[in-house]
Amino acid sequence: MTFAELLEQVGSMGRFQIIHVTLLVLPILLMASHNILQNFTAATPGHHCHIAIVANYTCDDNFTDVLYCQELLRISIPVDGNQQPEKCLRFISAQWQLLDPNATTTNGTEMDTESCMDGWIYDKSVFTSTIITEWDLVCGSRTLKQMAQSIYMAGVLVGAIVFGSLSDKFGRKSLLIWSCLQMAITGSCAAFSSNFTMYCVFRFLTGMALSGINLNCASLSVEWTPTKLRAAVGMVIGYSYSIGQFILAGLAYVIPDWRWLQLAVSVPYFIFFFYGWWFTESARWLATAGKLNQALKEMQKVARINGRKEEGDKLSIEDLRASLQKEMSSAKSTHTAADLVRTQSVRRISCCLCFVCFAYYGLAMDLQNFGVSIYLIQVVYGAVDIPAKLIGFFMISFIGRRVTQASALILAGLAILANIFVPQDLQTLRTLLAVFGKGCLAASFNCAFLYTGELYPTVIRYVDTGMGFVNTLARVGGIVAPLVQMTSEHLPSLPLIIYGAAPIVSGITTCFLPETRNMPLPDTIEDVERQGQQNQLEKASN
């Protein structure tokens, strides 16, 4: 009897699995809030130099004499090519002659100016406070905004490595509980940061915790799910991330202060930490760790919750040992990252998946400048995921993982590249193309979550080498993404070229991966190699 058959015996998709998956997706709901939190906490409002040439400068948000403020701004701040106040320059002395209606823009720009020596005045009509206004991350310090996001993603990268290794040693459940606690503490501490350096340190630690939550939620949900329902569970988890984008938009609209918003998305992880003790450890992991007695108890617990107590009582350690013999024998040998390239089939999987994950993290964090309300576009971000992931789910279930992944990535790349040729004044068309690309990426990521878990064998699947390695390179894309945006200062279309080419390359490499639809999870590296040889024989016979 295989483990899948044992799972059917105790209830493969009963009350336990429904409760289990529901509780696992709740932490994922707020993962999106942390990944793209800086869209709001690091938003850059309109700003100009503080006007120091007038002694009693009182033009703040509560000042009612609009004409006076406009005139004061005109004599104090030069205008740029778009006839908007310069953000980083001011006149050295008041230019009273500019109050003359006949004064030209040239007259203003040729006058002596200086940088903002006394700080900046920020437009607080949308955001009352962000890290940009808190620490003046504008003008010469504007690149620190991208650096903060890259540091956060570096934490996600380190977390994928550290928690990936620890989870195979101490179990999925233990590391998930710890990750939730770390997320709650460090995320809350970031809200009380007194300087930019402290903020970056806590965001780095928050990113580490996010990796631990992501990896272990994935393994616990899939390893307790029957083969025929893995796609459905993957869709549920994918939709929870999409719903999280709606939640973030709502929270940010209600909470315009960055400190309170940071707290709002961090404190709930204390709740996840407390109920995490109820989670049931993966029986597959317990078997590979040699803990057959505990694995039997967990299987019987699942049977009891599913209303199949009698079937659970019939299980024995001998049944588990026989069904999980391959995992246990493989666990006796030490598996390292070298196993990812040691054999031909696994080596091909590793190389292809690196491109797939890199493309998503390189692109998803760049589609933010739509020229409309930031709250509205955040809702659009989440809304486009709903039909995209639904279409992706049906394609995954009835056509296959490989075709879905490849087509979604290639379409996303083409949509991004198409924006290079669309004029800037056609903002609606540019937005539609970008949103379409975002939807394709959402479908791709939803598929990748399931696909990667099915491609790697149990012994190197999720957290030790396989998914840990893939997630490591995926996070490199997240680190680089904010920095790639800075290349637009040299060539405006360069970021689009990079972000458009990446998913097309990823889609092409996906075509070389094996199909996993309706296939049992491979338990050992030998299973993967055997499957690869069978696929080659089938292709040769056709």
TrEMBL record:
Transmembrane spans: 12-32, 151-170, 176-202, 231-254, 260-278, 345-363, 375-396, 403-422, 428-451
Domain of life: Eukaryota
Tagged with keyword Membrane: yes
Major location (coarse): membrane
Keyword terms: Membrane, Transmembrane, Transmembrane helix
UniProt keyword Membrane, yes or no: yes
Annotated protein name in UniProt: Major facilitator superfamily (MFS) profile domain-containing protein
Compartments, as annotated in UniProt: Membrane
Domain Major facilitator superfamily (MFS) profile: 89-518
GO molecular function, one term: transmembrane transporter activity
Pfam families per UniProt: Sugar_tr (PF00083)
Entry's Gene Ontology cellular component terms: membrane
Membrane topology: Multi-pass membrane protein
CDD domains xref list: MFS_SLC22A6_OAT1_like
